[in-house]
Amino acid sequence: MPVCKSVKPSVVGLVLLFISAAVMAQSGEFRVTEVATQVDDGLLSVNARLEYALGPTVSEALENGVALVINQTASLERVRWWWRNAVLVNQQRRYRLQYHAMSRRYVLTRLSNGESRSFRSLDALLARLGHVEGWPLLPREQMSADGRYRVGFASNLELEALPRLLRTVALVDSDWKLSAEALKQPVTLP
Predict the structure, then answer these.
(1) Helix residue spans in 3-82 (DSSP H)
(2) Is there a contact between 74 and 137 (Cβ–Cβ < 8 Å)?
(3) Taking the CB of the first residue and of the last residue of the chain, which one, N or C, has fewer CB atoms within 10 A?
(4) What is the per-residue pLDDT for 58?
């Protein structure tokens, strides 16, 4: 006699959802969840939401003094039907993540200007890093009203910034290959 005669599809779906969330938390993943544009004072800028999850291997390295560098890339393309899209803007921001054992604080530093902030937890730092607001791309006047445009946003862990010995391990270990595929959205101009 079977123990369970029928299993509802909704129960199976719920169980699979919990299992996939647990696997993501264990393995680490970068994901772009939202990209939007806005025009303020004649300047087109991008807003993005990202989810950063470091796996146990990468988190352990960070807590043992290894600095991590994360790249964020914003791009703007003019969509063309007859040829490849024209890339108008391709900007990159680099951030260094560090853990200070003496103060038990995580530090996020923007490498282009040295601006840094400290956080009590890694989750708080990753939440802040995943909240991009008002990244300026291009003056509105440089865009034609009849053109079609698309904005993209991506992020990745820069393996080349790791210490040499760790870099060789990271190049072959999938736990270190953290990147968010570019999420691209059409731009609607006012």
Answers:
(1) 9-27, 56-63
(2) yes
(3) N
(4) 97
**Do 157 and 52 touch, CB atoms closer than 8 A?**
no
The domain segmentation of the chain, as residue ranges, is 28-187
Q: Find the DSSP H helices in 46-157.
A: 56-63, 122-129
Q: What is the pLDDT of residues 116-164, one digit of tens each?
A: 999 999 999 999 999 999 999 999 999 888 889 999 999 999 999 999 9
Tell me the sheet residues that pair with 37.
Answer: 46
Q: Is 42 exposed, middle or buried (0-12, 13-18, 19+ CB in 10 A)?
A: exposed
pLDDT computed for residue 23 by the predictor: 43
Measure the CA–CA gap between 91 and 102, rounded to whole angstroms. 35
**How many alpha carbons fall within 13 Å on the CB side of residue 176?**
19
159: left (phi over 0), alpha (psi -120 to 50) or beta: alpha
Rounded CA separation 37/150 (Å): 10
Q: How confident is the model at residue 59 (pLDDT cuts 50, 70, 90)?
A: very high
- In tens, the pLDDT along 2-54 reads 555 555 555 444 444 444 444 444 578 999 999 999 999 999 999 999 999 99
d(CA 123, CA 162): 21
Q: What length is written for the chain?
A: 190
Which residues are CB-neighbours of 59 under 8 A, at least 6 positions away?
Answer: 28, 122
